[in-house]
């Protein structure tokens, strides 16, 4: 199988690779009911040592920098309670946590979630967190540029491997909200 983007040797439909995915991601793909068929979500195997976006793109295609999206976990606080949200933004942009995310969550204060909290709450590896398989009820804030994109490289739940996913599939995830200006 040939990948729609990038220069990958090992490309397979993600549902055929559930044993290579983080538990929550595999469970979400097993139960997938999205507008985009699960078989159109692709898994590409990669070395965990090159999982960070810049090095990954140098290895698998410089054009991937504009076709990669990062999932960052934000934590909002209000009345002593912490709420989490996943934020999907193109890798060439930065999420507006103190503005767009804070306002959407109705939080008094918002910041990037600490690493331990992001890993503990999602059940995924840091550097591989993905919006597919997040805890039920979490909002997934998707920058409009991500929703409008064709295939994008995103995390697979672990540092090994990535998922290639159409932007419209990310915009249709349960709890997803497309926001103009989430990232800039």
From TrEMBL:
CDD domains assigned to the protein according to its UniProt record, in alphabetical order: PA2301
Xref: InterPro entries: YbaK/aa-tRNA-synt-asso_dom_sf, YbaK/aa-tRNA-synth-assoc-dom
Species this chain originates from: Streptomyces smaragdinus
SUPFAM superfamilies registered for this protein in UniProt: YbaK/ProRS associated domain
Domain YbaK/aminoacyl-tRNA synthetase-associated: 48-170
Protein name: YbaK/aminoacyl-tRNA synthetase-associated domain-containing protein
GO molecular function, one term: aminoacyl-tRNA deacylase activity
């Amino acid at each position: 199988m040939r990948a729609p983007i990038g220069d990958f040797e090992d490309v397979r439909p993600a549902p055929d690779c559930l044993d290579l995915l983080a538990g929550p991601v595999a469970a979400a793909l097993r139960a997938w009911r999205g507008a985009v068929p699960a078989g159109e979500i692709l898994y590409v195997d990669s070395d965990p040592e090159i999982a960070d976006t810049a090095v990954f793109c140098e290895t698998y295609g410089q054009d991937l920098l504009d076709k990669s999206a990062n999932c960052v976990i934000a934590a909002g606080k209000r009345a002593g309670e912490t709420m989490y949200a996943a934020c999907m933004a193109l890798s060439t942009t930065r999420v507006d946590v103190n503005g767009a995310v804070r306002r959407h969550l109705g939080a008094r204060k918002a910041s990037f979630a600490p690493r331990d909290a992001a890993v503990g709450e999602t059940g995924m590896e840091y550097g591989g967190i993905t919006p597919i398989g997040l805890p039920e009820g979490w909002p997934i804030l998707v920058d409009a540029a991500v929703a409008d994109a064709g295939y994008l490289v995103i995390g697979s739940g672990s540092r090994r491997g990535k998922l290639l996913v159409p932007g419209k599939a990310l915009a249709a995830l349960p709890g997803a909200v497309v926001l103009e200006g989430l990232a800039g």
